[in-house]
Amino acid sequence: MGATRLCFLLFCLFLVSVSSLRKLKDIHDLKNITYARSAPRHGLQLLFWFAQKVVTVDQSNILILDSNFDPSRGDFGFHHYSNREVILPSLSSWQSYYSVGNLKSPGAKALPAYVQKYYRNTNVPERNMDRLIISVKQNKPNKILGVFITAYDLHKNDFNYENTYEIDPALLLQIGDPYNCTVDESNIPRNTEDTEYDRCLEFLKEMGYSSDDCKHSHISRRKKRSPYLQCNAYEGVKLEIKATTGGFAKLLWEMPAKIMENSKYVYIEICQNTRSSETNEVHTEVRKQLNIYEPSGVIDTSVSTNDGLQPRLRLYPSLFDFQFTNPYIWYGPEFDGANKVIPARIKGFDASLQLCAEDGKASARLYIKKTFSDWKNVLFYSWVGFYKNSQDKNDDYSTYQYADRFAKVENSITHNYDIYQYNTSLAIVPGVQIRFLLDKKYDKVLAQTTPWEGVEAVTILPSDCGTPSPSLQPKITSNMPEFFYGPEYDNIGLQLFTEDGNACARLYVKKTFADWKDTFYYSWVGFYTSSQDQNNGYYTYSYVVKFEKMADGNDNYDIYQYKSKLAIAPGVQIRFLKDKSSDNVLIKTEPWKNGK
Known about the structure:
Blueprint: H1 2-19, E1 23-24, H2 27-31, H3 43-52, E2 54-57, E3 63-65, E4 79-81, E5 95-100, H4 113-121, E6 130-137, E7 140-153, E8 158-159, E9 165-167, H5 169-176, H6 192-207, E10 238-243, E11 248-254, H7 257-262, E12 265-275, E13 282-291, E14 296-304, E15 309-316, H8 319-324, E16 330-331, E17 344-345, E18 351-358, E19 361-369, H9 375-378, E20 383-387, E21 399-402, E22 407-408, E23 417-427, E24 433-437, E25 445-448, E26 482-483, E27 492-499, E28 502-510, H10 516-519, E29 524-528, E30 540-543, E31 548-549, E32 557-567, E33 573-577, E34 585-588
Parallel strand pairs: 1-9
Antiparallel strand pairs: 2-3, 3-7, 4-5, 5-6, 6-7, 7-8, 7-9, 10-11, 11-14, 12-13, 12-15, 15-16, 17-18, 18-19, 19-23, 20-21, 20-24, 22-23, 24-25, 26-27, 27-28, 28-32, 29-30, 29-33, 31-32, 33-34
Helix pairs in contact: 3-5
């Protein structure tokens, strides 16, 4: 009996400790902790990056991620987290934790360069100790239930409860707000990555992040690493690889002028990194060595674009160093074969489509959920078309292949999906796009990728400098859109809002969903005075095809709306029903929580 009582008391103490996990509610709270405050830690960079992926926060403080995002697929290096250290609250059987931030993961190449910078250029254990963890519903992986940051206790090789915090959605909104970016007064066009990098530097500066405290280990843990690397030595260096118009690697570099002045010889090597599936070690082949004479520039090379290409800087202060030493001074980010773009969901099925580069040529990957076991029969007539330009018509493809003829990729990094790939002879160049079509006709496009570009294109949040977007500010006059989560419909959302004191409904329809009116011809939205009302107990309704199209849509969505005469009040709810019956509810909003 005594032992049982002791176990019970210990369990209660555990519950108290987990429930007392500190929540960071705003920037002020984040400034008042010492978490990841200096190089080579990457926790703050990871948190900043994550804030750029948040679509919005609804009135229930639920975070909504991009509709294509699926942590169980391994996007950005996300993987299942078991909470074996018990640093986080226990979850129900229909919820899961997913962790991101392990920069050893192949999927982490899709993370921005500013997240990976110190990992590439230091050897100390602190360079990979930070993680961001999310909790999600298994059937709605885009709805985030909670966000946490944590770090390893390097002495125990476990996550440390004392270094674990919950992140309030309001804090993510503050970090994602574009007010704090640096304006380039030179009027030189800058891509999204450069602008986001500048904003991250401003964020780190505001947090008091220091790159001067980084300690370097002279015992390298990775082969071919120089003992002279110091993470505060060359903060102004930028190395990057993009794709040229011929499918070859374009090298871009920028470095402080003093590097050129203090070095007799300057080289940048383009290396091909490959990973052994058994040991995960990095093996390197030098594909090109370039003499550099200017502190910045762009060179088109003859090296085919491939996953794992990496630029590396070598500096030689004297002829002696050139003849007797061979150090790498700075490692640029590895080229991501998928261009840092996550797969696009194939409408109606547990499958996704991704464009990638293979030996400078366009390739397509299919991610098929393992539970979709009969996919080859279901998609027997489906095919993927390759297009030189996103403006090309569906029948104007460069080449194509039937989905069931894709080759299975062995040793894939995801446990929930099988990956199939098809390689073409079409050069991977800006503008290339692939599309998934349901059958032999040309009018049923179930998925299409973002045209191949040199910048990340996943987030739908604005990242330009200027006035904060109204979409980033919490609204008290409407709930945020509830999107229809897969696999059947993942490109349409329903929103409850108020106008003139009455309940109104909006539909957000992705522009690629061209035949939505045919699909939902008999669908309707019901207005209910209470979430407890039966589906046939609506106050009023309207067929969705009769919603009025609004002029204030955006680049991704068309917006349709319907105004009812139901007075807005706490408890009011709207529901989207598939057909004339009252049984098939595809989505329903959260009940209205205030009458403002």
